[in-house]
Amino acid sequence: GRCMAVTSVQIKDTLSSLGVSPGATVLVHASLKSFGAVDGGASAMVDALRETVGSSGNIVVVTISKLDEQWPLFDVRKTPSICGAVTTELMSRPYSVRSLHPMSSAAVLGCDAEELCKGHEDSATPCGPESPYGKIFLKGGTVLFMGAPFTSNSLFHVAEEIADGSFGWVGFRWNSPRRNATARFAQNVLG
User: Fold this and answer.
1) Beta-strand (E) ranges in 12-139?
2) Distances from the Cα of 58 to the Cαs of 8, 118, 158, 164, 173, in angstroms?
3) Which residues contact residue 84 at a Cβ distance below 8 angstroms, ignoring those fewer than 6 apart?
4) Where are any strands of DSSP class E within 50-105?
5) Residue 25 near residue 32 (C-beta atoms within 8 A)
6) 30, 84 contact by CB (below 8 A)
7) What pLDDT is stored for residue 167 in this prediction?
8) Where residue 125 falls among pLDDT bands split at 50, 70, 90?
9) What confidence category does residue 173 fall into, taking pLDDT thresholds of 50, 70 and 90?
C-alpha cells in the first residue's frame, strides 16, 4: 500500500505532546527524508514549528556552510547550508536571521533571533557560550530531533566547551590541530 503523508497538524500535535510550547527556544535537527512524505514538505514542517513555539518562541537550525570553488567566501545572505531542506526553508523565511560564523552558522526564526545570532563571528569557537548554540543552552532551550539521529546534536560541542575538553573526545577545539588546520586553510584561501 501507499504511505500516507504526514500533515502539519500531526507534526504540531506531536510537538505539543513532546512538551514543545509557546515561548520555547528549540534547536531543531531535522531530516525531511526520514518522514517519508510530508504534505507541504519542508515549508509545512517550519510552519508547524513556528505555530507551536508561537511569536514568543524561537526556532534555531544549524546552517553549516561548505566553502569550496563555487562558494569560496561566506555570504550570510547567499551561501547555502549543507544541513538539509528544513534548514534551507527556515533560512528563506522573512525575518529569519543567520549568524555570521563562516562555517558553523545558525539561523533563527523568532523573537530573539537577533540576540541569539549576535556576535557569533567573534566567538572564540563555533560552539562556545557566546555562540547561538551556547546561548540556547544558557537560555534553557530544547534540542529537538525530527527524524535526525541523536549524534547530530550540536549541543555536544557546547558541553565540550563548558567542560573545557575534559570528556576525552576531540571536537572542534579552538586551539586543536583541527582548528589550526582550518585556520591555515582559511588563510590560504582568503589570503
Assistant:
1) 25-30, 58-62, 97-98, 106-110
2) 18, 15, 19, 28, 27
3) 30, 31, 32
4) 58-62, 97-98
5) no
6) yes
7) 42
8) confident
9) very low
Burial status of residue 106 (CB atoms within 10 A of its CB: 0-12, 13-18, 19 or more) = buried
Tell if the pTM clears 0.85, that is, is over it.
no
Residues 55 and 78: their CA atoms lie apart, in Å, by 26
Q: Beta strands 106-110 and 97-98: pairing type?
A: antiparallel
Give the other-Cβ count within 10 Å of 42's Cβ: 18
Question: What CA–CA distance (Å, rounded) separates 124 from 173?
Answer: 9
* Lowest-pLDDT range of 25-29, 76-80, 176-180: 176-180
Per residue in 31-48, pLDDT tens? 999 888 899 999 999 999
Alpha-carbon dihedral of residues 41, 46, 48, 52, nearest 10 degrees? 170
**Confidence at residue 62, expressed as pLDDT on a 0 to 100 scale:** 95
Residue in the block written with cell 512538551: 19
The string of DSSP letters for 44-58 reads HHHHHHHHHH-TT-E
Spatial CA neighbour of 111 closest among 57, 59, 46: 57
Helix (H) or strand (E) holding 92: helix 85-92
Average predicted confidence (pLDDT) for the chain: 83
